[in-house]
Each structure stands twice: as C-alpha cells, then as structure tokens.
Write a structure and sequence with these properties.
The protein is mainly beta. It folds into 2 domains: 49 residues, no CATH class; 67 residues, no CATH class. Helices cover 10% and strands 35% of the residues. It is built from 2 helices and 7 strands. The strands form 2 sheets. It has a 5-stranded antiparallel beta sheet with strand order 3-4-5-6-7, with no helix packed on it. Strand 4 and strand 5 form a beta hairpin. Bound molecules: zinc ion.
C-alpha cells in the first residue's frame, strides 16, 4: 500500500480513494461508497507545517553589510513545551534590538527593545531559538 495514496480520502465518509480522482474529462469521480466528490488531502498535516513556518530576512544596501536583519516565526519553548511566535529584529544602523514573543493564544510573553550595544547575547543572537531567560 502507498502512503501517498492513503492521504486522499472521501471528505464525507472518509473512505480512502487510492486511484486518481479525476476522470478523462477532468471532473471528479464520485466516491465509490457514498457518491460524494469532496476529498480530503491530508490538510491537517499541511496546516501544521504552515503554522510552524519561519521567515528570516536581511536588508542591505548594495555593497554594504546588512543594516537590518530579523527572524519571524515559531520557536519551541523547552521549559513550557509550547510553540511561541517570535519576532526579532536588529537594526544595526539605528543601534536597536527588538524582540517580541507571544504564545499560541496571542498573549505577549516578552516585548523588549533596547540599544543593540546593550544587548548581551546568549550564545546565538542570530539563530531561530529564543534565549532561555
Ligand atoms: Zn464517500
């Protein structure tokens, strides 16, 4: 049996539909059990992946080192075992360090902003992990 095929099932009765679900004219075949043409395509898995997607960026002028860099995305908090949303931006040209952390319900856990020169790193300022403070 193929794992790829088994991720497609009828949205109505959840019968696995292993064969290609389009017929020759490009229309969906009805489910062999209930006749529904609605399908599930493992959407729960796709949503989970998107939720924990991250974005890192750098902004630079041509020929110069980046003047701003940041990280936006999910970070796993080991102490609580929860996923936190992290926004971390460093503006080198403005000497500014900013970090905001919210939990999955949107509650602000950490919202700090201070001069970059005052920022004492925790071993990995640029990495995706939240410092254990
Ligand atoms: Zn069905």
């Amino acid at each position: 049996m193929s794992d790829n095929m088994s991720s497609i099932s009828c949205a109505n009765c959840h019968t696995p539909i292993p064969e290609p679900h389009l017929n020759e004219s490009g229309e969906k075949k009805p489910c062999s059990s209930c006749g529904s043409t609605l399908r599930n395509y493992g959407q729960e898995l796709a949503a989970e992946v998107m939720m924990h997607a991250t974005l890192a960026f750098k902004a630079r002028s041509p020929g110069r080192r980046p003047f701003a860099l940041g990280f936006v995305g999910a970070s796993f908090h080991r102490l609580t075992g929860a996923w936190h949303q992290v926004e971390r931006v460093v503006f080198r040209d403005k000497n500014l360090y900013r970090e905001k952390v919210t939990d999955e319900s949107g509650r602000v856990i950490r919202d700090v902003q201070h001069p970059l020169t005052d920022h004492k790193g925790h071993g990995d300022d640029r990495g995706p992990r939240t410092p254990d403070t």
